[in-house]
Fold:
Amino acid sequence: MCKVFVLDTEKRPLNPVHPAQARQLLRNGKAAIFRNFPFTIILKEARLDAPIQSLRLKIDPGAKYTGMALVNDSTGEVVFAAELKHRGFAIRDALTSRRQLRRSRRNRKTRYRQPRFDNRKRPDGWLAPSLQSRVDNIKTWVKRLFKVAPIEAISQELVRFDMQLMRHPDIQGKEYQQGTLAGYETREFLLEKWNRQCAYCGIKDVPLQIEHIHPRAKGGTNSITNLTLSCEKCNKKKGTKDIKEFLKKDQSRLERILKQSKRPASDAAAVNTTRFALLDVLKTTGLPVETGSGGLTKFNRNQQGLPKTHWLDAVCVGSSTPILNIKCVKPLMITANGHGTRQMCGTDKFGFPSRHRTNKQIHFGFQTGDIIKAVVTSGKKVGEYVGRVLCRATGSFDIATKTGRISGISYKYCSATHKKDGYSYGF
Ligand SMILES: [Zn+2]
Structure:
């Protein structure tokens, strides 16, 4: 279980406490629930005790999921972990469909209209909406965590591999296959460069080994341009054979491999603009921001024998990673849902107006996206339901519970436990 965040009477963050201690504080009336997600309590009396231990916020940004974790650097304890699911693809699809509808409208028989002004220039640092939403989601959560936890430093995974480390010429034989940090960086780089497949047969999703194009036995070097990836079968088959001899029958592949091997390293190190934009955002907090590479994350994770998940990747970001204590941490699963639509005229799939939407969002004090608890005392649906609500102007709501959707619950039975904030939660 993650620890529970604690605020003092002035809403300043204190050391997070164990859930059992939080329960006791709540039971004794010494604290009240401040927020449900992430679970935060607020003390009712001022307390001056234990010095506040600073935490480090660690972030592993990804396209679909971003891992986040709060780690106590001095004890190695993981205090809080979360996985944030982005809606980048939903945004992209929505914009594509809108664009298509508008395109078809323009293509109908209408006169040509000149553009009225030049409004097609994009400002510097512009990101596509789907990418910007990822940055904004993380920004939102960094802000939220800042409010409830004593964060003093940030770590972010910035690049896939560290080009500097790979230039070390003194890495020998086995070190490429496993063990050292440089080995991990090299492997990450090669996976990217060779498209995560065997160079000789093209097989994917199997363990790949690092292979010398010009064999070591015949004077090949350990330089990065002489390395590729192959499956075990091909690696064994090739042995110490020269590549020209090994691929005698497949000249086109031979040419492709030789050409690819000479491609400069910087080609594969495609700069990820989203991550750099995020770094700029994190720097505005004024706290020291440490950056790490994907190779380093993987190295840290494997050193401590942890499985691959988004939140554990976040925990392992950066060279400051201590020996970790991740006893029974349950990550909070956060899904970005957006804030609904502003479109007043709903269209069918052909672009014809089919329904009218209202801009009124709040009905009887509730709005779609609130997490509510409904205690139904009469009728067919007697019982207790907890979940995300879908509101209607009629006052008949639907509740998405863990077991499924319950429809037709009157607003009279509902009380909100967490107001809509654009996200939904699970464990
Ligand atoms: Zn192969």
Notes: The chain has twelve helices and 19 strands. The radius of gyration is 27 Å. The chain has four domains: 5-43, 55-87+128-162+276-336, 166-266, 360-426. The CA atoms of residues 36 and 393 lie 26 Å apart.
